[in-house]
Amino acid sequence: MTQLRVVIVGAAGRMGRTLAEAVRAEPKLRLVGALDRSDCPDRGRDLGELTGGGQTGIVLTDDPLPLFANTDVVLDFTSPAATVAFAELAAQARAVHVIGTTGLSAEDEEKIRAAARHARIVKSGNMSLGVNLLAGLVRRAAAALGPDFDIEILEMHHRHKVDAPSGTALLLGRAAAEGRGVTLDDVAVRSRDGHTGARPDGAIGFASLRGGSVVGDHSVVFAGAGERIELNHRAEDRSIFAHGAVRAAIWAFDKKPGLYGMADVLGLR
User: Fold this and answer.
1) Which of 150, 177, 190, 269 has the fewest CB atoms below 10 angstroms from its CB?
2) Catalytic (active site) residue 160
């Protein structure tokens, strides 16, 4: 197999640097471009300087067009507005677009679905193997336990995370809702404050904590009368998300245009 050419967007950030390391460690991929915002203070520097390695010849730029025109894969853990724009460019270039961005609105999601008519897009609120296996367990548990068990989802992330609930929490919430045969938007309770009254029957609750340098902790609690089941995942290193993104890129390359998830990549559907 010829090496797939890879462009990383948001390359100067923590996740971008982790992606660069994962790509360089994968013999099936070749890093050919690094992109970030025009106001990025590292623009113009060699990517190797940012990741603690030697010179790579790949200079951080803010111009996506020449990069997208000469790549097979775009790895994207950026922001909703940027991801939507990149989805359109990746579709035009017929490149695989792997999206780990969270905080996308319904309108953003629709634009990504439109781009997927012409491109192979793999999008997930979490790229790790463990979380996607957890989602499958949550789906089965919700179906088996039924409405007699209340469902609460607790997540904690580092102090710099800007969206809540996390994309992973929402992924787990959707899995629980699917297990119950309902739509998450119809039953989600995302905040509680003041005199809230009794917990609505069938609700799926969310709680978000922020602090320190936590990479990502998630717990799904099934609380019944006299017993409680908890399913947990602790992310200890961002590299698990990067390795998942690399796996998704290789998997999607020979697929038909469409919108895929990590459950497709891992054969969990």
Assistant:
1) 269
2) no
